[in-house]
């Protein structure tokens, strides 16, 4: 055997073994993955959904990436809804699920989504595989965050599509997504407008909080989205409550669904760890009770529900000014998406805070460790109550909820809750701890017009929310003390609301004018029939009605009383008597007969007889306005229009231009003599002004001459110092050109510009690259000397030429 064959027969001692090629390693890895996937599919097929004895996620046939994500997110034990829903969803069945709030419905559909796409080997090239619809943006964000946590080890691409973000950015990324979490409106917009968005391969559709999606007006959007989707798909519907609309949707979109319900007919729809109470309090005392409750629970995390966003904003701004001692937040649907997300994160991270919110946060949101859920306004139905109180006592933790009911709402609402198997106990408020904030609110609304405007808007929105409720057995608008409620908000009077006319508005509109005018004529004694026939019907035009409109919509009665002066046949005394009971309506009248202690004070309030100020009595609505009228400047408001007055040194008002009487003019002499005298006076005045101007100009020239001499003296001193340095050079002076006897003043006057003439600034010569600051200073000194100095001779020939020129 040749030597080379011997070397090739075996490797040298200490050399590395030969590695397998990469293609072979990839083949082996792919083969192992296929074997694991086949084993996983077999375990799913062998899954027995009827046993329902799965207590942890480790007992379920899950892939390794999903199991690792659940373990890293600290999800181990299964909740009741997850035990029933996840096995059916893994088998590919449609599900209609109902469970209590805080029972873990999110994982009940997210785990099947990841598993079904993983077993189908879903990639980016396959397009959209799962679509998750949420009623609110906050809930969609929360679902997306949970999906990121448990799906961190998968290779799927997931996206969040909600309103409030750039539509173009979403379009660019939409075609590469495998899982989408979205709201119905934005999703339908992309389906209609985004050409690159394909949903033909969709495998799963999930609707979270399906009842809320249908109630919020998304029914048409959801129907349109379902029409775009392929019929062969798996659909999961989850909700805390089941309504008729959800049942109708289930019949349209589900195929042989599995109904999964955690709370049966005999159990309550709310968690057992939730302590539920209600307080009967009148409408004007609601804010007082809420304030007293917050002051007693400063170390708690409180969530307060109101019926409208305008109420949320008013209560937040009012309480923020009064500073209860606990951080305050507010959240409603009119805020921008970034602000809503920021407030949600702040409330989730805080330990002690109070959040005023609408039903935007009533569904599905998981705020950790909420101690109290306060429902300041009665919910529209029992289902809304269940979702609101579900923000606390989540995941078998303790929680407390309090419902504020008006006396007219107590009987109807408690009956609705009993029908839903919800037990609520009545509690009373301790009178000793009750604090009234009506005076503070009235003071703030009086000082701050913006807060008063918010209060008026909150009042109107609350009344409208009660008016549009369908359950009239619970919400009785006619029994509510609206005037007292407006006063409790700090308003001087209840704003006029058009829709309070009720069903009689249409009949009143179509009634004949004679009937309307006769009904509006007055509430006094009825006239006899003969007089009514003899009386002519009053025709009211649209212009009459236009000028009769006062204080409509938002403005209050208090404002109309400030603007309108009701002086028709009534004295000031009767007005004071009639309006004495109104809130913050103290009227006084200042006139010539007003009670003023001294004549000096009366002269401040009223003009003198010879002035042009109107002497009509002035309506004064407050002490503040009375003080303003005592100032001289404020008296300008009482003068006649179109004339301007000035005050002399004694404080008497005069017109700025007063005409002289003809008799006074003739007493001073004939017109020609007065004209000549006037011209002579003006000529003398101009001469005096000319002399004063000449003296000023002479003083300016003298000052400039002195400054110039001072500068020349400084230059001479600098030159003398340079000569002492040993250079041996002397400056040779030459006499001035011109007459010897010429006066220096004349020369200064010749060189300086005339009075009023603008002297242009001397432009500075740009310094060259080889010069420094010392060269600039020397040149400036030579220029200031002018013609008094000659350039120093540089050579011996220059010195001889200069000497010969001087000698002759």
From TrEMBL:
Residues 1-37, 508-545, 558-625, 643-808 are annotated as: Disordered. The keyword Disulfide bond does not apply. Residues 714-726, 791-800 have a biased composition (Acidic residues). One of its GO terms (cellular component) is nucleolus. InterPro entries: DEAD/DEAH_box_helicase_dom, Helicase_ATP-bd, Helicase_C-like, P-loop_NTPase, RNA-helicase_DEAD-box_CS, SPB4-like_CTE. GO terms for molecular function: ATP binding; hydrolase activity; RNA binding; RNA helicase activity. Its EC number is 3.6.4.13. Keywords: ATP-binding, Helicase, Hydrolase, Nucleotide-binding, Nucleus, Ribosome biogenesis, RNA-binding, rRNA processing. Residues 86-260 form the Helicase ATP-binding domain. GO terms for biological process: rRNA processing. Pfam families: CTE_SPB4 (PF13959), DEAD (PF00270), Helicase_C (PF00271). It comes from the Eukaryota. Residues 562-574 have a biased composition (Polar residues). Residues 699-710 have a biased composition (Basic residues). Residues 21-34, 747-771 have a biased composition (Basic and acidic residues). Residues 286-445 form the Helicase C-terminal domain. PANTHER family: RNA HELICASE. Belongs to the DEAD box helicase family. RNA helicase. The Q motif is unique to and characteristic of the DEAD box family of RNA helicases and controls ATP binding and hydrolysis. This is ATP-dependent RNA helicase.
């Amino acid at each position: 055997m040749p030597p080379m064959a011997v070397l090739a027969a075996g490797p040298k001692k200490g050399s590395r073994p030969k590695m397998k090629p990469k293609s072979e390693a990839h083949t082996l890895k792919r083969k192992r993955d296929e074997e694991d996937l086949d084993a996983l599919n077999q375990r799913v097929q062998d899954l027995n959904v009827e046993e329902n004895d799965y207590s942890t996620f480790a007992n379920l046939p899950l892939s390794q990436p999903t199991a690792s994500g659940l373990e890293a997110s600290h999800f181990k034990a299964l909740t009741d809804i997850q035990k029933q829903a996840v096995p059916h969803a893994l088998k590919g069945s449609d599900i209609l699920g109902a469970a209590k709030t805080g029972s873990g419905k999110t994982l009940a559909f997210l785990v099947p989504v990841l598993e079904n796409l993983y077993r189908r080997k879903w990639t980016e090239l396959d397009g959209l595989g799962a679509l998750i619809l949420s009623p609110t943006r906050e809930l969609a964000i929360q679902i997306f965050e949970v999906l990121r946590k448990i799906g961190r080890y998968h290779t799927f691409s997931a996206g969040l599509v909600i309103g409030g973000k750039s539509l173009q950015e979403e379009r660019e990324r939409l075609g590469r997504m495998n899982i989408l979490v979205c709201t119905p409106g934005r999703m339908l917009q992309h389906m209609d407008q985004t050409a690159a968005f394909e949903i033909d391969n969709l495998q799963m559709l999930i609707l979270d909080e399906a009842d809320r999606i249908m109630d919020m007006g998304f029914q048409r959007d959801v129907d349109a989205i379902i029409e775009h989707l392929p019929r062969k798909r798996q659909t999961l519907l989850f909700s805390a409550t089941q309504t008729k609309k959800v049942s109708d949707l289930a019949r349209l979109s589900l195929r042989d669904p599995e109904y999964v319900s955690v709370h049966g007919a005999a159990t309550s729809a709310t968690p057992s760890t939730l302590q539920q109470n209600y307080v009967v309090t009148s409408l004007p005392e609601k804010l007082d009770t809420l304030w007293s409750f917050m002051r007693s629970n400063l170390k708690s995390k409180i969530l307060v529900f109101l019926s409208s966003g305008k109420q949320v904003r008013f209560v937040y701004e009012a309480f923020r000014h009064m500073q209860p001692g606990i951080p305050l937040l507010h959240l409603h649907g009119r805020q921008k998406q970034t602000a809503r997300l920021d407030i949600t994160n702040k409330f989730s991270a805080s330990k002690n805070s109070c959040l005023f919110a609408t039903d935007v946060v009533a569904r599905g949101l998981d705020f950790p460790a909420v101690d109290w859920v306060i429902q300041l306004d009665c919910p529209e139905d029992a289902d809304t109550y269940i979702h609101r109180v579900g923000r606390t006592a989540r995941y078998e933790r303790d929680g407390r909820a309090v419902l504020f009911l008006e006396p007219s709402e107590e009987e109807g609402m408690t009956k609705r809750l009993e029908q839903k198997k919800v037990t609520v106990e009545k509690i009373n408020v301790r009178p000793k701890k009750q604090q009234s904030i009506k005076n503070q609110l009235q003071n703030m609304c009086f000082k701050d017009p913006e807060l008063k405007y918010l209060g008026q808007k909150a009042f109107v929105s609350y009344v409208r929310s009660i008016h549009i409720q369908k359950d009239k057995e619970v919400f009785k608008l006619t029994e509510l003390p609206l005037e007292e409620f407006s006063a409790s908000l700090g308003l001087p009077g209840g704003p006029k609301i058009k829709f309070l006319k009720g069903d009689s508005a249409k009949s009143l509109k179509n009634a004949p004018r004679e009937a309307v005018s006769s009904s509006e004529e007055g509430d006094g004694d009825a006239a006899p029939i003969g007089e009514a026939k003899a009386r002519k019907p009053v025709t009211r035009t649209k212009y009459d009605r236009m000028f009769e409109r006062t204080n409509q919509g938002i403005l209050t009665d208090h404002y109309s009383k400030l603007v309108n002066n009701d002086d028709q046949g009534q004295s000031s005394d009767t007005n004071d008597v009639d309006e004495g009971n109104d809130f913050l309506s103290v009227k006084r009248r200042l006139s010539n007969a007003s009670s003023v202690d001294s004549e000096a004070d009366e002269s401040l309030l009223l003009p003198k007889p010879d002035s042009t100020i109107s002497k009509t009595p002035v309506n004064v609505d407050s002490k503040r306005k009375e003080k303003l009228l005592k100032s001289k400047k404020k008296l300008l408001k009482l003068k006649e229009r179109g004339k301007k007055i000035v005050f002399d040194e004694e404080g008497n008002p005069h017109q700025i231009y007063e005409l002289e009487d003809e008799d006074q003019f003739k007493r001073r002499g004939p017109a020609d003599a007065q004209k000549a005298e006037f011209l002579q006076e003006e000529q003398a005045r101009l001469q005096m002004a000319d002399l004063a101007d000449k003296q000023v100009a002479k003083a300016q020239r003298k000052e400039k001459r002195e400054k110039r001499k001072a500068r020349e003296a400084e230059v001479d001193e600098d030159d003398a110092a340079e000569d002492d340095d040993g250079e041996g050079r002397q400056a040779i002076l030459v006499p001035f050109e011109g007459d010897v006897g010429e006066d220096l003043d004349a020369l200064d006057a010749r060189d300086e510009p005339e009075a009023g003439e603008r002297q242009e600034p001397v432009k500075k010569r740009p310094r060259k690259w080889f010069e420094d600051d010392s060269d600039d200073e020397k040149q400036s000194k030579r220029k200031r000397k002018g013609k008094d100095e000659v350039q120093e001779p540089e050579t011996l020939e220059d010195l001889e030429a200069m000497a010969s020129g001087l000698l002759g």
